[in-house]
Write a structure and sequence with these properties.
By secondary structure, this protein is α/β, with parallel strands linked by helices. Helices cover 46% and strands 15% of the residues. The chain is built from eight helices and seven strands. A seven-stranded parallel β-sheet has the order 3-2-1-4-5-6-7, sandwiched between helices. The model has no long low-confidence stretch (mean pLDDT 95).
Length: 255
């Protein structure tokens, strides 16, 4: 018996990186998983490797897509018990060069998308029956401190942490726990993109750029997606029933 047997988890951004690692971890613990994202091929690749998994194409910045995503998840595996709001994107620019369209895009993907994901599934996770239910936001250390050249991203991730804390209080009486996981620099395709941009602008190699980013983590190395996924798995376990309203940094040390 797995600790998440008979549970159904919805995971956004589940086609690669942290989202895919979370899908594998929760499925390995017995959960049925619905993984959502904008690109069908990587979603199908992850879903096909898991026992009880469904791939759903959705744009989490669109309310109608989020409603359809939950409907499709329902059709595949029944009511949703666990929501992992993971989808996100990062762009860098000096604050003086962030135009309004870029600002809106960053906020829409990272903050509004997280809200719409949870809002669409809220009736499921707060339903009145037995079983523990969880909401986990994947935020970032950028939700706990500032970084240069990513003002919009930091603002969005601070908003995600605030959303998690607010919902944790509002939903506590329902038995639902709400937490945020805040990884430091993590070895994902998103980090590869960031390293490539740094290399192009500075003349460093991609490996040198990756090493520079890794130094921001307290232990001096990149976080692995599996380390983030195991933190999420613990938050979804019965043993974490009293962990609520927390922003848990996964970065090798204190912020």
């Amino acid at each position: 018996m797995g600790q998440l047997d008979h549970r159904h988890a919805l995971i956004t951004g589940g086609g690669s990186g942290i989202g895919a690692a979370i899908a594998r971890a929760l499925a390995g613990a017995g959960a049925a998983v619905s993984i959502a994202g904008r690109r069908k091929a990587p979603l199908d690749a992850v879903a096909s490797s898991l026992a009880k998994a469904t791939a759903i194409v959705a744009d989490i910045t669109k309310e109608a897509d989020c409603a359809a995503m939950v409907t499709a998840a329902h059709a595949a595996h029944g009511p949703i018990d666990i929501v992992i709001a993971n989808a996100g994107a990062a762009a860098s620019a000096p604050a003086a060069k962030i135009d309004l369209a870029s600002w809106h895009q960053t906020i829409d993907v990272n903050l509004t998308g997280a809200f719409l994901t949870v809002s669409a599934a809220l009736a499921d996770v707060t339903r009145n029956d037995t079983g523990s239910r969880r909401i986990v936001f994947i935020a970032s250390t950028a939700g706990l401190k500032g970084y240069p050249y990513v003002a919009a991203y930091c603002a969005a991730k601070h908003g995600v942490v605030g959303l998690a804390r607010s919902l944790s209080i509002e939903l506590a009486a329902t038995g639902v726990t709400v937490n945020a996981v805040c990884p430091g620099y993590t070895d994902t395709p998103l980090l590869d993109d960031a390293a490539a941009k740094i290399a192009a602008k500075t003349g460093r190699t991609a490996d040198q750029s990756r090493a520079m980013l890794a130094k921001d983590n307290v232990h001096g190395r990149l976080i692995t997606p599996d380390e983030v996924a195991q933190t999420v798995l613990w938050l979804c376990s019965p043993e974490a029933a009293s962990i609520n309203g927390q922003a848990i940094a996964v970065t090798g040390g204190p912020i």
